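**User:**
Everyone, produce one record:

**Assistant:**
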Amino acid sequence: KAIAAVKDAREVAPDDVALILTEANLQIKLGNKDEFANLMSQAIELDPANPTLYFNLGVIAGEQGESDKSKEYYRKAIELDPEYADAYINLGSALLEDDKVLVEEMNKSLNDFDKYDEIKAKQVELYKEVIPVYEKAYNLRPDDIDTIRTLMSLYENTEMEDKFNSMKEKYDSMK
C-alpha cells in the first residue's frame, strides 16, 4: 500500500527526489534490489551532485557482486564529498575483495615457494594501494574501531611496524 501511495504521489510530482528516495527505501526493505538501483539512478539524473545516491548504488552493486561498479560509485561519492568517511571505508572494503582470490591462490601454492612468494608480493601491493583509503577514513573518523583494526592488519602485513605500533596503541587505549 505504501508503494502504491508513493507512486500516486510521484505521478503528481515525478521530479521530486524525496519521493523517489522514499520509494527506493521501500523497495530495498522489500528486497527489490534491482528496482532500488533503478530508482537511485533516476534520483541521480535529477540530483547528480548528491554523494549519498552514489554511495547507495555502490552498496547495492557490491551486494550484487559487481565489485568494479561499486568501486566506481564509491569513488564518485568521494569526488563529490571528500569528507565522506563511509565511502572511503566501503571503497577500501571493495578493494580488499581481491584479497580473497589471492589468499586462495596462496593456499593452493603452499608447496611452491616461488609461486607463493609471487602471490604474496601481489597481496602486499594490494594492501599498499588500500592503506591510503583507510588512512583517509581514519583521519575523518579516528574513533572507528573497525577502521583501526583494518589499518593495524594492513600495516602488520606490509611490515610498517611504526604505523602498526601507533595504531595498536590507539586500539589498546580504546578498550
In short: The chain has a mean pLDDT of 93.
